[in-house]
């Protein structure tokens, strides 16, 4: 049995800015981290064409380039970066156990979780087409709003995040059309009032998105359905933002870690510690507020430092 079990000092589950940053710090601390990249190596940023808010890249950088750079930097210091994903864990005992998709069992002294979160989309074929093309569909107004300065955009959503993103876009864009799928907001009253009182935000209640329109390369508009009158119409727009929530990729941890009602891992405030000693979290798996590459990287650093201190205290 011992021949089939790999013992490691630090296992990092997931990549992206949090995972790779944790790996850089853990490697430099001689923790010899093993990192499994997950089902989407590099995380959400690999689907982003331009990243202009990452410090140190004044001309901007593409998401894939950025992730390749972070991975290369982690490997330079000795991180064992592996293809594959973790399918199961067991944190019930003193040994932290994890199983890889190919059946390998790993016993880790410390584990850093950086599995991220996945943005929810409407699931329209046209939406996915222009999302994959990088042609005007986004789930992050703060990341991509800059590219739509003085243009007209559409945003779908009804919660606090949707209102916050619509308000953010209103400062950059000529006009923001907000499609709310039901006849009422899910947002707090103060957030609803904020968008209602913003002159260049038009709110269309009880409206569905039927199709994202485009010229084959970029978005040119949105076809919507007024569910009250059962009529279709087109809204001119160069950008289509989806703000209907994120799903944290934490399903395999739910039996062992404290999660909030939506599945985000609960960490001890001011640290990367989870409810299990020796297990730490960084990035969007625990962050439902900021969800930025720079904050993910910061918490990845915290996770590695906390893991290093945990190991030192055990010596």
Topology:
Elements lengths: L4 E9 L2 H13 L5 E3 L26 H14 L3 E3 L3 E5 L5 E5 L4 E9 L3 E3 L5 H9 L3 E2 L2 H4 L7 E5 L3 H11 L4 E6 L8 H8 L4 E5 L1 E8 L4 E8 L4 E6 L2 E4 L3 E3 L30 E3 L11 H22 L1
Parallel strand pairs: 1-2, 1-6, 2-3, 6-17, 8-15, 9-10, 9-15, 10-11
Antiparallel strand pairs: 4-5, 5-6, 7-16, 12-13, 13-14
Low-confidence segments? none
Global morphology: elongated
How many alpha or pi helices? Answer: 7
Averaging pLDDT over every residue, what do you get?
A: 94
Percent of sequence in beta strands: 25-35%
The tally of strands reads 17
C-alpha-based Rg, rounded: 21 Å
Helix content: 25-40%
- CA distance, first residue to last residue: 27 Å
Structural class: alpha/beta
SSE sequence, one letter per element: EHEHEEEEEHEHEHEHEEEEEEEH
The main sheet comes to: 7 strands, mixed
Q: Can I get a quick summary?
A:
The protein has 315 residues and is of the alpha/beta class. It contains 7 helices and 17 strands. 26% of the residues lie in helices and 28% in strands.
